């Protein structure tokens, strides 16, 4: 019995010892696991923190260029090649492609930067997870996983913040663009601003001139200076020079270029109204004399027209024309006849008054250009004009010509050659939409007519009277044709010398004043002159 009890006791003690050993092992294993888990949590937390920090540092390193693979750069060359924008160039650059300039950083370059950051984060995470591929997998898995998770938390946090920033900037840009474009459009409409090239064979018309980069080593031509993808308020040329945007800001500072012929335009082109004065008429009708007298009068009698009124030539050709006109006027000599040229160059001038300024183009084509429609076809500036000055030489009218032959002035005064009506038809027959255009019929050489006419009535100075005089001397057919073509016809009479007060007929500046008002400009004179009274198609008096 005692032996049985001893065996049982030994078994119990053995079981107890086994249980204690197992329990101790369990406790030990639990402690080890807890210790390992604690370390793993700490390591994972530290790895996560390290990953977040790395995810926030990567953008800085990528944008600073510290990485071998930096972001793709939206260079001006890529812009020019069409690789930056999904859309083709529009507006003034439509036929030329995108200008050679840096795009807006947001969103175009910024988008590349975001892509580069995501690419770099992906490469770093691949390297981190690659550390798990080996016998050390149990040791590296948790820190690698924590680091990768933290890396993407930091990266995506940066991406979300910058994406929101990008959207806010894009919205602000859109609002600013609309405001600036509306302001530019309102300015252009208020000023009636446009550009008209006077170069032979070009005669292009636009409201958006091109501009040359001021860097002489660059020479890039910027076709569209409208705020947009290449700048909001300013633009950075591919060479690095900063250019002001909008025509209103660029034109006074940069060299304007004609987008049609690439020839330089006068400074300030595109910011002011352009008044075209295309003069039509047969050979020796007095076209050059009329324009020369007008230019010389603005130069010599500017203060009589309006206090402080000045005229400035905007090209070498115009400067020479103005100088010759003034000298010939002061010497009382007739100007030299215009040399026949199929595509003559216009004379651009800047006329500045006390209240406004405008660009005036005197367009003098030789009478040979108006012999036939084929000859006049090359004068394409006539297609865009809205007001015309048609000269009628009274000395070529048979009744007046007879008086000239009987006078002492016979052979001393040039007389228009060819048919006046043919000269008129050579131009008008090619024009469309005459309803929106105006014409001034100008009877020239009234001072000569006054000297030779003994029995015929003198030429009146008011529009209705001039019209009646033309009918009386046999030009009723010409008048009927003109008034059937144009709804707005005004009649003038001018002398050959431009003497007397410039705001009174028969001074040629009355015609210039009409041309300015007919094209939306402000009158040269403070009060409307009597020569500005026009006659409509029905023969009623109306203000032109």
TrEMBL record:
It comes from the Bacteria. InterPro entries: DO-GTPase2. Pfam families: DO-GTPase2. The chain crosses the membrane at residues 7-26, 32-58, 126-150, 156-180. Residues 277-495 form the Double-GTPase domain. Keywords: Membrane, Transmembrane, Transmembrane helix. Residues 326-346 are annotated as: Disordered. This is Double-GTPase 2 domain-containing protein. It comes from Brevibacterium aurantiacum.
């Amino acid at each position: 019995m005692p032996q049985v009890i001893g065996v049982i006791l030994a078994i119990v003690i053995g079981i107890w010892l086994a249980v204690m050993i197992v329990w101790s092992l369990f406790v030990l294993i639990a402690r080890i696991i807890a210790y390992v888990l604690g370390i793993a949590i700490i390591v994972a937390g530290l790895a996560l923190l390290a990953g977040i920090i790395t995810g926030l540092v990567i953008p800085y390193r990528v944008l600073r260029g510290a990485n071998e693979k930096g972001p793709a750069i939206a260079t001006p060359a890529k812009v020019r090649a069409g690789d930056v924008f999904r859309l083709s160039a529009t507006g003034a650059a439509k036929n030329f492609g995108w200008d050679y300039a840096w795009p807006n950083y947001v969103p175009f370059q910024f988008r590349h930067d975001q892509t580069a950051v995501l690419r770099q984060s992906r490469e770093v995470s691949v390297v981190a997870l690659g550390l798990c591929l080996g016998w050390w997998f149990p040791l590296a898995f948790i820190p690698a996983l924590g680091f990768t998770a933290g890396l993407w938390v930091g990266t995506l946090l940066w991406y979300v913040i910058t994406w929101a920033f990008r959207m806010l900037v894009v919205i602000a840009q859109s609002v600013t663009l609309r405001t600036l474009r509306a302001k530019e459009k309102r300015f252009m409409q208020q000023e009636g601003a446009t550009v008209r090239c006077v170069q032979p064979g070009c005669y292009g018309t636009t409201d958006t001139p091109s501009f040359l980069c001021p860097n002489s080593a660059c020479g890039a031509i910027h076709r569209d200076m409208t705020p947009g993808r290449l700048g909001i308020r300013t633009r950075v040329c591919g060479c690095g020079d900063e250019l002001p945007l909008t025509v209103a800001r660029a034109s006074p500072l940069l060299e304007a270029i004609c987008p049609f012929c690439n020839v330089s335009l006068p400074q300030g082109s595109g910011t002011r109204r352009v008044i075209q004065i295309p003069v039509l008429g047969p050979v020796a009708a007095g076209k050059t004399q009329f324009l020369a007298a007008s230019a010389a009068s603005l130069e010599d009698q500017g203060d009589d027209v309006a206090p402080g009124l000045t005229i400035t030539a905007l090209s070498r050709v115009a400067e020479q024309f103005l100088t010759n006109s003034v000298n010939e006027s002061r010497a009382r000599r007739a100007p030299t006849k215009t040399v026949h040229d199929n595509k003559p160059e216009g004379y651009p001038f800047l006329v500045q008054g006390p209240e406004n300024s405008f660009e005036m183009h005197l367009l003098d084509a030789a009478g040979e250009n108006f012999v036939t429609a084929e000859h006049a076809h090359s004068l394409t500036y006539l297609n865009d004009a809205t007001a015309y000055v048609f000269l009628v030489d009274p000395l070529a009218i048979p009744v007046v010509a007879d008086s000239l032959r009987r006078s002492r002035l016979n052979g001393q005064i040039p007389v228009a050659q060819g048919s006046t009506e043919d000269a008129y038809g050579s131009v008008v027959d090619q024009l469309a939409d005459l309803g929106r255009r105006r014409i001034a019929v100008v009877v020239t050489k009234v001072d000569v007519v006054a000297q030779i006419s003994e029995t015929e009535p003198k030429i009146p100075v008011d529009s209705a009277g001039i019209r009646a005089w033309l009918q009386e001397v046999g030009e009723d057919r010409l008048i009927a044709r003109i008034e059937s073509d144009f709804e707005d016809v005004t009649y003038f009479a001018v002398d050959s010398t431009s003497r007397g007060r410039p705001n009174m007929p028969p001074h040629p500046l009355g015609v210039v004043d009409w041309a300015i008002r007919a094209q939306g400009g402000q009158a040269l004179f403070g009060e409307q002159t009597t020569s500005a009274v026009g006659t409509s198609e029905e023969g009623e008096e109306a203000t032109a």
